[in-house]
Write a structure and sequence with these properties.
Immunoglobulin-like; globular; five-stranded mixed β-sheet; 28% strand; alpha+beta
Length: 212
C-alpha cells in the first residue's frame, strides 16, 4: 500500500494541473485587448466617426455641421454584407502615418487615432465619392461602429493593428499640420488607403499623403 502512495499523489497533482489549464482556457477573451479591440469593446463616446463622414478639415466640419440637406445621401446600410464579415483573425497591419512636402519633409501623426474600415459597398461609396471625389456625405449609419477596428499612433507616428481577420479594409487616419505645412491655420488632413490582409501575414503599409 505504501508503494502506491507516491503514484496516487503524482496522479492527483497531474489532474489538478490539467484542471487548472482547462479553467484558464475558458476565461480567455476571444478578442485582443487594448486599443485594437473591436467596436463592441470600445465606448462609442470615445470615438469620433465623423472622420468617415467626409473629406473635410476640422474647420469645414464646424461650418457645414448643420447643412445636412446639402450632403450626399449614402446607400442603404448593407446588413448582409457586414453580417458575413469575419470577426477574428491573426493578421497584422502596421506602419507610420505622416504627410510629406515637396522637399521630402515629413510631419507625423503623433498620437492620432486610426481606423480599419472593412471594404464593402457602403465603405466603397465613401472612399469613391467623399475621399476621392471630395463630396460631403450625410452621417454614417451608427451600426458601422460595430465593424470598425481602432488603434492609435505613438509619438513617432507608428501604429499597428493586431488580430485582423483576412479581407480588404480602408486604412484611415488624420494628421494635424499648420505653418510647418504652409497653412495659415492648423488643419486636420485625412488620409485613407486600401489594404488587404491574408491569414497570419504582416502587412507593412505607411499611411502617407503629399501636402496640397
Amino acid at each position: 500500500m505504501t508503494k502506491k502512495l507516491p503514484l496516487l499523489l503524482t496522479l492527483s497533482i497531474m489532474l489538478l494541473l490539467f484542471a487548472g489549464c482547462v479553467e484558464r482556457e475558458l476565461v480567455v477573451s476571444p478578442y485582443n485587448s487594448g486599443l485594437n479591440a473591436w467596436g463592441d469593446e470600445t465606448n462609442i463616446d470615445d470615438v469620433n466617426i465623423s472622420d468617415l463622414d467626409g473629406n473635410l478639415t476640422e474647420t469645414d466640419m464646424v461650418i457645414t455641421e448643420n447643412m445636412d440637406d446639402q450632403k450626399m445621401e449614402r446607400i442603404a446600410f448593407p446588413v448582409s454584407e457586414y453580417y458575413r464579415l469575419a470577426r477574428r483573425g491573426k493578421g497584422t497591419v502596421r506602419g507610420s502615418i505622416y504627410i510629406k512636402d515637396a522637399y521630402d519633409k515629413k510631419v507625423f501623426g503623433a498620437g492620432t487615432r486610426l481606423y480599419l474600415n472593412p471594404a464593402t459597398s457602403y465603405s466603397d461609396q465613401w472612399y469613391r465619392e467623399s475621399y476621392i471625389g471630395g463630396y460631403k456625405m450625410k452621417k454614417a449609419d451608427p451600426r458601422l461602429f460595430n465593424y470598425l477596428r481602432f488603434t492609435a499612433a505613438n509619438s513617432d507616428g507608428k501604429f499597428a493593428f493586431y488580430g485582423v481577420p483576412s479581407g480588404s479594409y480602408y486604412l484611415i487616419g488624420t494628421v494635424k499640420c499648420g505653418t510647418e505645412c504652409g497653412y495659415d491655420t492648423l488643419k486636420t488632413i485625412r488620409i485613407a488607403t486600401k489594404v488587404s490582409v491574408y491569414g497570419n501575414k504582416v502587412v507593412e503599409k505607411d499611411l502617407m499623403r503629399m501636402v496640397d
